[in-house]
Amino acid sequence: MAIIRVHTTQNVTLEYETASLGERILAALIDYAIIFAWFGVWVGLGAWAVSSAGPTKNTGSKDETAGIILLVIIALPYVFYHLVCEVFFNGQSLGKKARHIRVMRLDGTAPRFGDYLMRWLLRIFDSGMIAVIAVAASSRGQRLGDMAAGTTVVSVRPRPAQATPLAADLAEVARYRVVFPQAAQLADHDVALVRQLVYQAQARGNYELLHETANKVKALTHIETDLPDLPFLQTVLRDHAHLAAQE
């Protein structure tokens, strides 16, 4: 899998692993299973309603109206499923959430509505084997919609190396450059708690916990930054470890 490297304004390099083609296919299969389940439920309900009503006279217009309403109920989720999910679930459809992958801009920031809209609009031409071939051929794992929107799909599954996350690499202490000197204000018990919370949030994919932890750290240290929550917390803890080693 390719690695997306993003250099932030805080002189921090972030690395993201692009989602594999297999993971994206599995996520798509889960999404289609959900859509077809929705389709099956409403078709079953419609068939049951028709059979329960029995033969009646002069109901042609009513049946036609009911059929149109049923068609709209079935079609709307199919048409707008990916757009709505990605906008409201932080770049993840239900299938992507199940496979721990999500949409991200190539500059490391969260996609805007226009980016999600562009990806959705190009699904008309960019689906099935066309999407598979595009993702396989792209060095950044992009389908046509991603190329147009400047996005890709990355893995948010915790890496094995993160099983004991954020511990300082002693071999790099000498050349490490502190990004947030305010990290020295954190007490040792605060740092231990933050490490535990970050590990739990990564393991469970709990982005709300990451966000709350990041906000608490910012309140304690008065740090202002536009870094995403996880890279911010990782950087603060590395800074704290480095500063503590210099005392």
Brief descriptors of the model:
two-stranded antiparallel sheet; RDD family membrane protein YckC; transmembrane; 9 helices; RDD; elongated; 247 residues; mainly alpha
Spatial ordering of strands, largest sheet = 1-2
Q: Tell me the count of domains.
A: 2
Fraction in helix: 55-70%
Mean pLDDT: 81
Radius of gyration (Å): 24 Å
Extended strand count: 4
Largest sheet: 2 strands, antiparallel
Main location: membrane
Subcellular location: Membrane
Organism: Hymenobacter caeli
Transmembrane segments: 25-48, 68-89
Question: Describe it for me?
Answer:
This is RDD family membrane protein YckC. This protein is mostly helical. Helix 2 crosses helix 4 and helix 8 packs across helix 9. The protein is built from 9 helices and 4 strands. Strand 1 and strand 2 form a beta hairpin. It has 2 domains: 153 residues, no CATH class; 87 residues, no CATH class.
In short:
The protein is mainly alpha-helical and 247 residues long.
What's the layout of helices and strands?
Layout lengths: L2 E5 L5 E5 L3 H33 L6 H29 L5 H5 L2 E5 L7 H9 L7 H9 L6 H6 L1 E5 L32 H17 L2 H15 L7 H18 L1
Helix pairs in contact: 1-2, 2-4, 7-8, 7-9, 8-9
